[in-house]
Amino acid sequence: MDWHGKPYYSLDAYCKNTYGEKLYKIALNAGFTCPNRDGTLGNNGCIFCSAGGSGEFAVDSLDYPSVRAQLDAGKALFHHKKTGQRCIAYFQAYTNTYGPLPYLQQIYEEALAEPTVAGISIATRPDCMPDNVLTLLVNLQRKFPDKFVWIELGLQTIHEKTARLIRRGYPLSTYDRCVNHLQEIGIPVITHVILGLPDETPEQVLQTITHLNGIGTWGVKLQLLHILRGTDLASLYEKGTYLPLTQESYTSLLIRCLKHLSPEIVVHRLTGDGPRNLLLAPLWSLDKRHVLNTLHHAMKQQGARQGSNYERLTP
What we know:
alpha/beta, single chain, globular, 7-stranded parallel beta sheet
């Protein structure tokens, strides 16, 4: 595999290898909610989740109410780029399979029918993937054989104690079962993992990485835990009962995760973005380029690469 000069298998490298060009991701808000917010499981969401449901960087759904309009608005931001003219329609805000099936079919097909959309990526929860949604995904693959359909699952951690603390709302077995069902129908899974969760040790984070290797997730997003205004995590931070990772500790933990991660897993994210107007800490994360440059420099100095410790930990 060609990693295009990086010490890990990035999404950018995958897209260039597979589609011959860079694919730009356009974040969409299709008007969903979440069982952690509508009273089904809770009303306040996970302790780190803002009122925007991780959709702060999505195209404004008030100004652009349709998927097509949001895609047009998003494409206008990168039309001047010299490399790559296609995009990924990313259903990002809240839980994007948590709605009536006819509406899900409508918005997914609307995105896939757009000629410049190479495929769709749907962020959701593993406890919001009923059989009729799986059937819909199969039908989408058949109707749009030249496009891809990806599912992104917010696992965050394999440890049940931490999951209860952050109010995730489902057990690890639900994630495992969902991944197996998606693999059976040929849908690639991208798993979200958060680094820096309260009371989690680096060893526990590596146990989560090992679990992902074993279950065979196709992609992974390694996300720094951001403390956003108005969240319950912000209350813990303001009381002094939670301290965020320093850049040095985050870089060190991230390198350990990458070294233990299977080299076949595509790395879709390494830092994440905290909205500037909401971010309380860590403020060093606002300079994303510096964070990545620091990571690359440290990996080069150490001779570290994704998967360099993978075989040793795998039977």
